[in-house]
Amino acid sequence: DAKTTQPNSMESNEEEPVHLPCNHSTISGTDYIHWYRQLPSQGPEYVIHGLTSNVNNRMASLAIAEDRKSSTLILHRATLRDAAVYYCILRPNFGNEKLTFGTGTRLTIIP
Amino acid sequence: DVKVTQSSRYLVKRTGEKVFLECVQDMDHENMFWYRQDPGLGLRLIYFSYDVKMKEKGDIPEGYSVSREKKERFSLILESASTNQTSMYLCASRASGPSYNEQFFGPGTRLTVL
What is the pLDDT of residue B35? Predict the structure, then answer.
């Protein structure tokens, strides 16, 4: 399975945008890029996913590099509730249902 | 609201005991998963099931077995619990097909083996 690399931790001020990077240099052409987050004392929750084009939803935006070897999760206006561990995961488009989680980025929001 | 529920939030067992962790989902999902989560190691897949009575080993199946007799229920079994199985256990489910990408997680069961 292709692997992802994320910073162990990041800090951001409340109400400012946050850019969470992820490197996936061995990504294959059929791998989707998924992001999940895990709030304290909860199971992970889905945030967003994409293949080639940038994606937006109510939670976040996903910017994917043209060569697809990296991506950035963007929280447009961080709140204290966004403090969590964020996981960037590659999922093959077919055949394999499993997700391989790394250790993620622990995001701290400073009031 | 879609839901994945796990039978216990906290569980304490003794070494050598047989332990059952139950997971139920109400979304009619084909795929169900068991992970364990340990500090510094992230989430690691133990077993998954893509249909009733079907199962596949994940990355760390040793010491565990699973059962899926009904579509909505996926059980993780520790035949003889050991202290190195002290961990947070997370269950998840997901629909099949390329359009269904979101995996839904339960709240987790923190198991302590003494």
Answer: 96
The span from the CA of A54 to the CA of B66, in Å, is: 39
Residue type, B96: S
Q: Chain B contact for A32, CB < 8 A?
A: yes
- Give dist(CA B10, CA B64) in Å, integer: 19
**Candidates A33, A98, A100, A106, partner chain B, best to mutate (most B CBs within 10 A):** A98
Q: State residue B104's pLDDT score.
A: 92
- The pLDDT score that the predictor gives to residue B98 is 65
Which pLDDT score is estimated for A99?
78
Q: Are B43 and B58 spatial neighbours (Cβ–Cβ below 8 Å)?
A: no
Exposed/middle/buried for residue B47 (C-beta within 10 Å: 0-12, 13-18, 19+): buried
Taking the mean position of all CA atoms in its chain, how far away is CA A75? 10
At residue A47, does pLDDT exceed 90? Answer: yes
For A101, which of B40, B43, B98 is closest by C-beta distance?
B43
